């Protein structure tokens, strides 16, 4: 069963069409990368999947469930942004568990879930620190902890590594891959970075001007780019 199906999704802001007729399928446990230049509509599509932005047409399904009218809080989707807005006055432990706290999950259960997420991300030793006492990479791990702790059906990442320096970017890329291997949760991952897309994705959708140019596994995209734009953007040897 497909975890995520996007059928004919469109989006316009006034007369500006930013997404036209998007069709995508992501199988259970897959890692779909939306790759394309700035302004091509990646974040808009992610926001529509999360329910943070209404579409102008089309349907979104998770499993059999049509999501169009489901409130973002009821979609069981966790999103990680590049600007990981952690609560500065709360220790890491509470930052990670805050979503569960809001949903009135009992403390014992909450603590266990936070502990498990922290172990997975190797940040157990940071649980009592405040975000201001952490490095950029550590903060990024806390932000991921906050997403993992909810045990979502789907992770959405919007350029989560673009604020990090090159070395840390490689480290966190490996970390995200490891987490995906461990958890098996489906991911939609937005980036404009070809290397990130090719190393992380089981499927890559190359976008331009709100249109998917090619949807395929990384090797196919690299070896058989659908058109000049894809070839140029990927840097494949054609
Ligand atoms: P990407 O994430 O690929 O950089 P976005 O999805 O953020 O692209 O934006 C796609 C297009 O939609 C851009 O042209 C952007 O200017 C436009 N856009 C995004 N949000 C709005 C908005 N709230 N109002 C008007 N135009 C918007
Ligand atoms: Mg964006």
Automatic annotation (TrEMBL):
Signal peptide range: none
Single GO MF annotation: ATP binding
Domain ABC transporter, first and last residues per copy: 4-234
UniProt subcellular location: Cell inner membrane
GO cellular component labels: ATP-binding cassette (ABC) transporter complex, substrate-binding subunit-containing
Alphabetical keyword list: ATP-binding, Nucleotide-binding, Transport
Homology family: Belongs to the ABC transporter superfamily.
Protein name: Sn-glycerol-3-phosphate ABC transporter ATP-binding protein UgpC
Gene that this polypeptide is encoded by: ugpC
First-to-last residue of the parent protein present: 1 to 238 of 358
